[in-house]
Amino acid sequence: MRDFEDLVAEASAVSVSGWDFSWLDGRATEERPSWGYSGLLAERLARARVALDVQTGGGELLAGVPRLAPVTVATEGWPPNLERARAVLGARGVTVVADRDEPPLPFRDGVFDLVVSRHPVRTWWGEIARVLAPGGTYLSQEVGPASVFELVEFFLGPQPDEVRNGRHPDRTRREAEAAGLEIVDLRMERLRTEFYDIGAVVYFLRKVIWMVPGFTVAEYRATLRRLHDLIEAEGRFLAHTTRILVEARKPSTVDS
């Protein structure tokens, strides 16, 4: 059995660029939502003419879609992911635009008939509505309220209700409708996530940087050691992710 120092050193050294979590195979598991976002994405992109993927990460999900829209554009704000996305998506004819993930999106009004995003850090609904063409669709899988908070609170302690519930689907509905969009589908599921060694936790927190802001092994070594001992005793650390599926439509222009 590998010891604490070995596991932490390995997870600290591996690259966390892109949005591919295959390094965690055999070390952590996450239950998938029943709706199958990848399949929904492929279906919508096959029908679209001009599409935008917001916060594409390393471009891995978009690269795996069998048929893209004739014009497909993506944005990404984190430099390591931007470089990776351009390498991955360039061969598919996708233009990847550097963007700060803050308004405004660098596109004209009403240019896209489809906008998609998986796990956006934040959804800027006004910008989504602005760049959608009349009758256009926004499809996204979002992180829901208190996602993996068993792990977050192990490191940070109990979080206030406004933090735990900041990504509730009721808020998603309010903000989408305030931007002038119509909700077509809105669902949430709570799913099991299990970490089987402390290296998996270190990798996850290095990659998903907003879970424990400012996370470093040096800062949290004592907490990591306690969690390692818990995993060794119980065989896993159990948490729960929450995922929201949202599909919204921009109303068509009414003929005069």
From TrEMBL:
GO terms for molecular function: methyltransferase activity. CDD domains: AdoMet_MTases (cd02440). GO terms for biological process: methylation. Keywords: Methyltransferase, Transferase. It comes from the Bacteria. Residues 52-138 form the Methyltransferase type domain. The keyword Transferase applies. This is Methyltransferase domain-containing protein. It comes from Actinophytocola gossypii.
